[in-house]
């Protein structure tokens, strides 16, 4: 909303008067809170009364058959899609439904899409440099100086994603799995509070999958991570808590053992696989 | 490279920039020496005609650098950079016209000849101020910069990129050409602006002034090159490359892609304007043909030939093609366009990275043998 539109609206606290950098409030536990969210596309209910709570520092896996609404859910959280009804809160202070994509990204929600996209012409180091949380306007970017502190932060992430040896190589030569890690690293450079990861192990080898599992579990505690994944073996290896989506709402929630023994889940999802 | 230097000084630490500046300044000194101190009948003497011709090439080189900045690093293929070049040229031309004063054919102290001829009674408002050099020189930057700002703002905000952007830049320069052809515009119609007498009080026909303009162009090229290099080696330069290769991803990292594009586009347009302004006093005329879409496409060919995203490649390309053009149009004028076309096809097929790509390949080989000479420019 432009400032003029806001000024014309007298019964409101103006957006530009509210503090911009108000910290995310997680004193009550949850970092993400979705209640009664519904959205339909041309009559098709993609999300139907979805209720979901993610705690601060939690690692959550979301599974569900195709068309269960996993991607739509992520679209709603990141501001790409607006739900018809319901509320989505980040911590207990920020109403995500009233924010746009860049604001939500700045607030601390990072999203990794299914297909890895890194800047192939730039080196691994430079990819992370661009992702780093910093003033991203034109002149500050033009005059930006690489300090020792920044370099340490980048090296720290490089170590975490295991790409130190490829630090100065162009990202274009990385393997598919390495690109996925680099992209996760880029998300981490943004210092997100909540990380949404869409099918991180699609197309990975066994070994790469193992490393990804290690990487994601090591993040939990520092960041909250939500992983959407099809690969049941992978989910089993990382998940503490699993949410099963079906036809736009939560079908079951619990540990992997609990949900895989749930008769409803077996019927709609695991049954098909077995 | 990630150094902790101030952005404007960073290029001076690069080997390629040092080499480029070294070669450029050596060439300037050499030409000056050969022009001034070699006897006229010596085979090594460089005539004033040649000095001006070289100055013209250097203007084209600066223009090519400007195009490479947006095309090579930002991925915006501008087929209308001739428009910014011509606008800078017109701003300079207007200053030179006002300098003629009452020495024109009709002897009017204020109005340029073509206005007297059209029976205009007074100077249009947009010609005011151009009798002052400082004002004209600011307009050399401002006119192309402003056009680029407005055009870029509209285009990039609507996320117009790729082929569509190329087409509208082409349309832009074509529209401007048609507009400047009209006598009512007040820019001399299809004759353009010509018959210049002097610049900053120096006689334009004297050899010393010509040499001065040549040297000024060389320095402008050096400054323009360093500015572009400073941008592409900064973090903003890497963001530009990011915009070029994965626009959506860049946006998701929190960068305002359209502002990055706008900034670099405006800088590039201003550099093109400077090139045009230095071009006009050396060739002695500016007319709407500089706006022609064909010219803008030719610039792109220079850059493609020299090698994209290197900047020095653009300089090499501009110099080589224009030298070839001079030679060719002297021998058989009709064949030039065929030769240019053939050259373009050959380079695209056999040297996709241009001449600079060839040099880089050789350098990589040389790197294996320590102490080998770097081969550039």
What does this structure look like?
The complex is a heterodimer of chains A (274) and B (377). Chain A is α/β, with parallel strands linked by helices. Chain A has one domain (28-273): P-loop containing nucleotide triphosphate hydrolases (Rossmann fold). Chain A is 36% helix and 23% strand. Chain A is built from 11 helices and 10 strands. Chain A has helices at 3-8, 70-77, 101-107, 124-131, 138-142, 148-161, 176-189, 206-219, 232-238, 256-261, 263-273, and strands at residues 30-41, 44-55, 59-63, 85-90, 94-95, 109-112, 194-198, 224-228, 241-246, 249-254. In chain A, the strands form 2 sheets. In chain A, strands 6-7-8-3-9-10 form a 6-stranded mixed β-sheet, sandwiched between helices. In chain A, a hairpin with a 2-residue loop joins strand 9 and strand 10. In chain A, helix 4 runs parallel beside helix 7 (176-189). The longest helix of chain A has 14 residues, at 148-161. Chain A is globular, with a radius of gyration of 20 Å. Chain A starts with a helix and ends with a helix. The mean pLDDT of chain A is 85. Helices cover 67% and strands 2% of the residues of chain B. Chain B contains 14 helices and 4 strands. In chain B, the strands form 2 sheets. A two-stranded antiparallel sheet of chain B has the order 1-4. Chain B is globular, with a radius of gyration of 21 Å. The interface between A and B is medium-sized, with 29 and 29 residues. Chain B: The chain crosses the membrane at residues 19-38, 44-63, 70-92, 132-156, 163-181, 211-232, 260-279, 299-323, 335-355.
């Amino acid at each position: 909303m432009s400032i003029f539109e806001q000024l014309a609206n007298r019964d409101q606290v103006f957006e530009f008067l509210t503090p911009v950098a108000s910290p995310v409030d997680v004193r009550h536990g949850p970092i993400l809170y979705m209640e009664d969210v519904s959205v339909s596309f041309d009559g098709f209910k993609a999300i139907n009364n979805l209720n979901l709570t993610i705690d601060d520092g939690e690692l959550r896996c979301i599974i569900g058959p195709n068309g269960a609404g996993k991607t739509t859910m992520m679209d709603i959280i990141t501001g790409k899609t607006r739900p018809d009804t319901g509320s989505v809160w980040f911590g207990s202070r920020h109403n995500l439904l009233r924010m746009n994509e860049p604001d939500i990204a700045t607030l601390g929600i990072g999203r990794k899409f299914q297909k890895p996209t890194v800047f192939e012409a730039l080196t691994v180091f430079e990819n992370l440099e661009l992702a780093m949380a910093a003033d991203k306007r034109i002149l500050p970017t033009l005059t930006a100086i690489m300090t020792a502190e920044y370099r340490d932060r980048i090296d720290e992430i490089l170590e975490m994603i295991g790409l130190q040896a490829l630090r100065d190589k162009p990202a274009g030569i990385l393997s598919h799995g390495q690109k996925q890690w680099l992209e996760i690293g880029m998300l981490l450079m943004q210092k997100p509070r909540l990380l949404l990861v869409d099918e991180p192990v699609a197309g990975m080898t066994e070994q790469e999958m193992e490393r990804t599992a290690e990487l994601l579990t090591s993040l939990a505690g520092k960041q909250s991570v939500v992983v959407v994944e099809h690969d049941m073996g992978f989910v089993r290896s990382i998940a503490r808590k699993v949410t099963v989506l079906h036809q736009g709402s939560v079908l079951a929630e619990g540990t992997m053992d609990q949900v895989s023994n749930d008769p409803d889940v077996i019927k709609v999802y695991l049954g098909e696989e077995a | 490279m990630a150094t902790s230097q101030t952005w404007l000084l960073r290029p001076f630490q690069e080997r390629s920039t040092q080499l480029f500046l070294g070669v450029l300044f050596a060439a300037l000194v050499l030409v000056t020496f050969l022009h001034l101190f070699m006897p006229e009948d010596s085979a090594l003497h460089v005539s004033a005609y040649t000095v001006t011709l070289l100055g013209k090439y250097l203007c084209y080189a600066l223009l090519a650098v400007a195009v490479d900045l947006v095309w090579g690093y930002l991925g915006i293929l501008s087929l209308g950079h001739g428009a910014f070049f011509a606008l800078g040229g017109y701003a300079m031309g207007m200053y030179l016209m006002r300098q003629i004063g009452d020495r024109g054919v009709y002897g009017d102290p204020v109005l340029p000849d073509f206005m007297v001829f059209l029976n205009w009674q007074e100077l249009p408002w947009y010609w005011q101020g151009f009798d002052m050099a400082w004002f004209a020189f600011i307009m050399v930057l401002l006119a192309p910069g402003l056009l680029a700002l407005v055009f870029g703002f509209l285009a990039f905000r609507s996320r117009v990129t790729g082929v569509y952007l190329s087409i509208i830049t082409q349309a832009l320069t074509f529209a401007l050409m048609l507009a400047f052809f009209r006598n009512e515009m007040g820019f001399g119609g299809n004759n353009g602006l010509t018959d210049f007498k002097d610049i900053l009080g120096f006689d334009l026909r004297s050899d010393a002034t010509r040499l001065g303009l040549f040297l000024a162009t060389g320095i402008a090229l050096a400054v323009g090159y360093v500015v572009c290099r400073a941008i592409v080696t900064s973090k903003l330069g890497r963001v530009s490359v990011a915009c070029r290769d994965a626009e959506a991803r860049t946006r998701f990292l929190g960068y305002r892609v359209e502002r990055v594009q706008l900034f670099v586009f405006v800088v590039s347009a201003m550099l093109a304007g400077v090139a045009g302004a230095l071009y006009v006093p050396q060739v002695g005329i500016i007319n709407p043909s500089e706006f022609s879409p064909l010219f803008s496409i030719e610039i792109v060919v220079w850059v493609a030939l020299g090698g994209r995203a290197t900047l020095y490649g653009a300089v090499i390309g501009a110099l080589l093609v224009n030298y070839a053009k001079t030679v060719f149009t002297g021998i058989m004028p009709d064949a030039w366009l065929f030769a240019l076309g053939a050259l373009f096809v050959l380079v695209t097929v056999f040297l996709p990275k241009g001449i600079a790509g060839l040099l880089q390949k050789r350098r990589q080989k040389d790197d294996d043998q320590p102490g080998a000479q770097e081969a550039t420019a």
